[in-house]
Write a structure and sequence with these properties.
The structure is a single chain. By secondary structure, the chain is mainly alpha-helical. The chain has a single domain (7-229, 237-258), classed as Fido-like domain (Fic-like fold), CATH 1.10.3290. It is built from eight helices and four strands. It has helices at 28-47, 59-70, 100-113, 122-139, 146-158, 172-181, 197-203, 248-251; strands at 85-86, 163-165, 204-206, 257-258. Strands 1-4 form a two-stranded antiparallel ribbon. Strands 2-3 form a two-stranded antiparallel ribbon. Helix 3 (100-113) runs antiparallel to helix 4 and helix 4 (122-139) packs antiparallel against helix 5 (146-158). The longest helix is centred in the first third of the chain and has 20 residues, at 28-47. The radius of gyration is 18 Å and the shape is globular.
Length: 268
């Protein structure tokens, strides 16, 4: 089946609020539970180094993470979304029609490659990691599962440094609000990572064995603590919202909605 329209991702009425899934589960509550179980298992495999994913820190790397995490849940696992999405008021996520998603992910790659992660102190690590994640978050390349994919990707980035990431050191609300505040202003391209810097400083912990390309997750850290996934039941067929984007409450959104990227289509 082709997933090329907003409606094609959903079951038809009366189940139009549920994303099509490999379980063919129409009950959104049951689907959420199944999704969490399966993606948590796959996430443990990734963080334990049990799966060989080339850590190229580019679009293919991001696709490979998503494909592994969601292979048991969605037929489009590992495929970039074909529709524009937004969340809350203001600027939408990367525009698929202008190539902005690919451009943002290329900026992620350049920022990872251009940083000597093993030499960074905690403050500088937090600044660089926040910038990388802000670009990845603005790309939001998948119809669902961007949060879990992004956190695994950042774990892989951290493996190049002297730090591990413990997402359990901040609450989901703090993480989500900082992510929302990092998004660009309307008609701008570049994210604003300042809100994420203190978050990454809080979750960065010294690595005992030094930088590694295959480091396992930190002691006592589970897949559940390493992720604040958005429930599959928060998909919606509602039209996009409009309104001012200033202030934490205005920019802290709920479920995804159809929308335009509202960007310039040009970087820098």
């Amino acid at each position: 089946m082709a997933f090329d329209t907003w409606e094609s991702y959903f079951y038809p009425p009366p189940d139009e609020g549920t994303l099509r899934n490999l379980f063919d589960e129409r009950d959104p509550v049951v689907l959420t539970r199944l999704e969490y179980v399966e993606t948590a298992r796959r996430q443990r495999e990734l963080l334990a180094g049990q799966v060989a994913i080339p850590k190229t820190y580019d679009a293919d790397h991001v696709r490979a993470i998503h494909r592994h995490l969601f292979q048991d849940v969605y037929a489009w696992a590992g495929e970039f979304r074909s529709v524009n999405i937004s969340k809350g008021a203001g600027r939408g996520f990367g525009d698929v029609k202008t190539g902005e998603v690919d451009q943002l992910l290329d900026d992620v790659r350049k920022r990872v490659a251009g940083t000597d992660w093993g030499r960074l102190d905690r403050d500088t690590f937090a600044e660089r990691a926040a910038t990388v994640f802000a670009y990845l978050n603005q790309a939001h390349p998948f119809r669902e599962g961007n949060g879990r994919t992004g956190k695994v990707f950042m774990e892989h980035v951290a493996e190049r440094s002297r730090f591990t990431l413990d997402f359990g050191q901040v609450t989901p609300d703090v993480w989500n609000q900082a992510s929302q505040l990092s998004r660009p202003d309307m008609f701008s391209y570049a994210p604003e990572p300042a809100s994420l810097v203190p978050v990454f400083r809080a979750i960065a912990a010294p690595r005992t064995s030094g930088p590694s390309t295959s480091a396992p997750p930190g002691p006592g850290r589970s897949a559940a603590r390493a992720s604040y996934p958005r429930a599959a039941t928060q998909a919606t067929n509602q039209p996009p919202q409009t309104g001012p984007q200033r202030g934490p409450q205005a920019r802290h959104g709920g479920p995804y909605m159809p929308g335009r990227g509202s960007g310039t289509g040009q970087g820098r």
